[in-house]
Amino acid sequence: MKLYNTLTRTKDEFVPNEPGKVSMYTCGPTVYHFAHIGNLRTYIMEDVLDKYLRYSGYEVKRVMNITDVGHLTSDADEGEDKMLKGAKREKKTVLEIAKFYTDAFFEDCKKLNIKTPEVVAPATQCIGEFIKVIKKLIEKDYAYEAGGNIYFDTSKLESYYVFNNFEEEDLQDGVREGVEKDSNKRNKADFVLWFTKSKFDDQELKWNSPWGVGYPGWHIECSCISMKHLGEKLDIHCGGIDNAFPHHTNEIAQSEAYLGHKWCNWWVHVLHLNTNSGKMSKSSGEFLTVSLLESKGYDPLVYRFFCMQSHYRKSLVFTYENLDNAKVAYDKLTSRIAQLDPKGGDVDEAAFASLKAGFVDALDNDLNTSLAVTSLYDVVKADTTDATKIALIEDFEKVLSLGLLEAAAKKREENAMANADPELIAKIEGLIAERTAAKKERNFARADEIRAILTDMGVILVDTKEGTTYKFA
Ligand code: AMP
Ligand code: ZN
User: Fold this and answer.
1) Ligand 1 atom 2, closest CA
2) Where does ligand 1 bind, in terms of residues with CB under 6 Å?
3) Which domain holds residue 391?
4) For a FRET experiment, which of 43, 202, 260, 389 has its CA 20 to 30 Å from that of 368?
């Protein structure tokens, strides 16, 4: 598989450190608000990469952090502390806020068929790891104390700007937009590893450390959580493109200074989802969520399909018109699949292999999901048996996870209901009522007999708390 690497700026043949095994790290969400659909674009595309590696035969171990503390990078960080702001806004503690939005994040992931990584690690549970690594960085003279905080000294590195060619003079103080000057720093690009003093002194969460009571900076958490669970050599590190600098640049600086050797081979960055008015951002407070799309009648999987139609290395513009186009395409595709007969012949192995090759070629070429979606259309149009087509869709869905077969089955049922003869419907409903009455009288033999009659008629009963409904087999 060829995979673009931000580090080499080329599409390179992917080779893991250990044959057959892949270690993969994903920057997780900052949990002071709901994830917006831009954040979720990144997680959808990372999910496709994770699943495609597994599909290609690799054993993948994936780790993700939860930023529930440590989102500050220097004392000059912008605006207000985001977790505290969230807590104040909702009159909750910081940990309550973190729990609420972590759960909300995973609910969104579930709706989008995004698999949960093998390890999910909240930063607040790894404080000991951060202290261990910071101590060693001080011992190795890569970190210094100033004004009560511990800073990483970027001047000690041979090369700091690994992803781009920034000149120090081009950078604003604190290397991020809208930040104030932090006079403790020796060099503009230095960043805080541990705070004991900051303008955000009303922090709820603080821990003892050799440098006084305080809390960690943001970058250190991903380095430490990754090394703790995935060891000293990492195959793939992913995140949205905004993370490349300074977050990932700083992760590399401190991890390699700590380890004394190269740390991660592949850096995979997903480009942003934008609106017509610019980048969608969590801190601006105005953003679109999965729940909002649902409330407007969109299936979350239509959003997944929308993301899949474009390449992860191109920025994507979100408009409702674009989403509507994706919805129309998704409905057409699932309607075509609904017309396939699951009992339609045998799987033709040769046709299966040649159509699968198209799908594999697309994803082997730097995860070209839009061509992978095209190969789904090639399958439905192909001159082969329905059984072959369904087997292929099932196979592709291990990676795409678009809920295509489920949506098609639902359509098939709806069609069967709409086309059913009214007399037949009346008969079925009569038998169901008789079965309900028999159950009430504890006449289970009769209830079972009626179920058998309905099964013979091709009717499947669905017992729910509200009563019994049915569908056609
Ligand atoms: P955050 O919760 O802000 O830490 O962001 C979670 C993930 O979403 C990170 O990998 C970010 O790089 C990514 N991200 C942030 N904004 C966008 C956007 N507009 N489009 C795509 N990904 C984004
Ligand atoms: Zn990170």
Assistant:
1) 29
2) 27, 29-30, 38-39, 41-42, 67, 239-240, 242-243, 270, 272-273, 279-280, 282
3) 307-412
4) 389
